[in-house]
Amino acid sequence: MATFKAIRIDKADKGTTAALTQFDEAELMDGDVTVRVEWSTLNYKDGLALTGKAPVVRRFPMIAGIDFAGTVEQSSHPQWKAGDKVVCTGWGMGETHLGAYAEMARVKGDWLVALPQGLSARDAMAIGTAGFTAMLSVLALEKHGLSPKSGPVVVTGAAGGVGSVAIAVLSKLGYHVIASTGRASEADYLKHLGAAEIIDRNELSAPAKPIAKERWAGGVDSVGSTTLANLLSMTKYGGAIAACGLAAGLDLPSSVAPFILRGVCLLGIDSVMCPIEPRKAAWQRLASDLDRTKLTEITHEIPLDEVPEWGAKILAGQVRGRIVVKIV
After folding, report:
1. pTM for the complete prediction?
2. What are the residue boundaries of the structural domains of the chain, listed by start?
3. Which CATH class is domain 3-115+296-326?
4. Could you tell me which residue ranges the Enoyl reductase (ER) domain spans (predicted)?
5. pLDDT for 107-116, tens place per residue?
């Protein structure tokens, strides 16, 4: 094809614009694999890029979208051939490299993971970067030594994409999950995913004490700032918190007390430049440890032309669970 549909972000007099347009194939960036994109998804970072609320996009014009699933059309990479089903998340797509909200993408073959057996391309994007990040967090907690016998685990931003998948996975693995949310109306949804307890996020929004009463053995945090500081102060001796988001801010108004008095660990989770082997491991675990029925129930599908509208909604806290984007 000479041109294809894409959500293009351009610089404007004030900020940026994002709109569905025709993009010329000749403008695609260098890469050794060309993929026909079938499905993408909407993550918090996509919302930031689409609205221009944060400097996510580093070059213009940019095709938005940080992850896709699709079929290889052309490849000069030794690992991939035409017809292969692949998944790609991160690596700067939608930031420095033309992204996923398009009918075609050209990327480095080293960025790709084979679509796990048992998952459809739509399933993979129902998981997306958010679910992939949640699983990286679970793997980090397991590597630290946590198990269901260690005690309860807390998940913040529980009704969001990362939170929803984290709750579903952790509960299936046998953990007692405490879900923190600012949306009381989502209590039934969170319990259906597997949350054993629901707490109001306001419990974690006051300035954190250096050390507070022990409440959990570990957690997955997508919020950051004061929330993360409170999680750390309430973590049991030898426990750990996996930090993977910054919805409330980049700051961490905490102290060294949890680390040196309780041996608590803060585990940093990066999904963008994560090496390929942990990527493969995370996707295999998602294929086996995520209840596909629950995945279906937390997923809402939108067409490509509605992506800018939903980008604003996800920043406004109006999105529950996962959004999949049908490309073709």
Report:
1. 0.93
2. 3-115+296-326, 129-268
3. alpha beta
4. 15-325
5. 999 999 999 9
